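hey so i finally got around to running the thing on that chain from the lab meeting. sorry it took forever, my laptop kept dying and i had to restart like 3 times. anyway pasting the input first so we r on the same page abt which one it is
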Amino acid sequence: MTTVPPEVTAEIAGPAKNAETAETAEARNTSRGAPPEKSGGSFLAKAALVTAALSVAGSLLGLVRDQALAHFFGAGTDTDAFLVAWTIPELAATLLIEDGLAFFLVPAFSLALARRAADSAADPVHDPVRDLVRASLPRMSLWFAAAALALVAAAPYVVALLAPGLPDPGRAVDCTRLTATCAFTFGLTGYCSAVLRAHQRFVAPATVYVAYNAAIITALFVCAAPWGVRAAAVGVAVGGALMVVVQAPSLWRQLRRAPGAGPAVSGQAATEPGAKGVAAQEPVAQGAAADRALQTAIIWTVLLFALCRQSQVLIERFLASSLPAGAISHLNYAQKVAQMPMALSLMLCTVTFPTVARALAAGETERARDRVERDLVLAGCVVLCGTAAVIAAAPALIELLFQRGAFTAPDTATTASVMRVYALGLLGHTMVGALARAHFAAARTTWVPFLAMFLGIVTTAGIGFLSVGTWGVHGIAAANATGICVSALLLLRGMGPSTVPLRTRAVAGQLGRLVAAAGGAAVLGALCAGRIGQPALAVLAGFSVVTVSFVLIGLLLGAQPWPSALRSVRGKVRHVR
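ok and heres what got predicted. didnt touch it at all, straight out
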């Protein structure tokens, strides 16, 4: 992976724009018997860096997992069979861990925490957070278990639906029965992660993919010889259980805390000593808001959005199943490597999502808007720098990571070219993830994300069906990039007073300058990496040239966040003097 420029870290750590100082807020909240909400720039910076570090560790283990899969099974029929079964964990991760559950559970628990802080002095026994757990967890657990059992029973039909062109579906059916267990374990994982993030506890949720990928890698090395590709599916089943185990202690500690110990809601209405009349009404209003956050309509809007987003993978697997053996594998390897910058860029949005939700719950729309705008620019900066690096060093990167064992030089060439096409949509993927969080943070029913994603899926499917016969896997990758960019533009256009009223033109202008900087950096990096024959040196040189040139071209164009980052650095230097 390319190195994140230091200016980005400086900007992340910049002070948040609030109507009152951190010291004043802390004093007011302390007088109410609750610690202040941890929403300042310093806390968000530390949380983002820790989360990013653990996520990078999980992503690196994911690369090792893919390397092991490529080493043992190459890019042939065995790998295609497992990847068809792996569609279920990928779909479950989107619906239950990354997007679906988080988009309505984090706002729901954030509102419950706000209610706890507002009425804990009046009712120290009653705890809205525990009430919400008691009302939601048993029912959701039953749904998760039922979905897992249904998928196990319907495995042959699932494989026939996902990849009707597979020459030997038997192995895919066996793997699907094993991976179907993740419908239960991933559901519990997503629930735990959402509750912990609402409590501003980010370490345990960030470790889940470390445990998950470690289990798959271990299963491959221990069981690949006797069980074949089914060993990877066993690793998925075991890894899903470990994802719950690593979060359970932290979740138990949070739920055992006294109601008065929860983080306080920030906002003048809840903290001013003279606002007792307003504060007295807040528990009722916030309790109603927390109940609304779990209404059926909100849940369906979130799940349909997440399902549409993951449908891109379903479309790709369906189209690629009719191509020669290895097509599904080439797409998978290309995506897994290219998505690493996107995953890193969304870490900040994951950390700030509870802060945005709580700001909207307190009626601080401007604070939420400033946070979302800053997140969009910073996430765009990180993903575009990574996109330029991936495009510049694609052949050397794939050769370095995968070309060994059953993964041959032709596989490297095809995967690298597909990855370059797929990388063109990484900014769109990042914007969709960031903007969807902004849409759902208000805990209101909104169909804009679903409609935007649905139109993007229609675009993906249309272009894919038209181009797969001529361009093969490259046509599928181009369809993915185009469809997700359409969704991102629609989501940006749909921001308004009912969600977070962004200054769309200003954000688009900043992102446009970053895109230009990334384009220039990618060209320079490719020219440098292409002249070096040794893969490791080519990757190192390409990434270095991309990082330096991206920063310099960004400064030349006046792209954010460089000017504000430099102002922050100069201010700290003057303070030291």
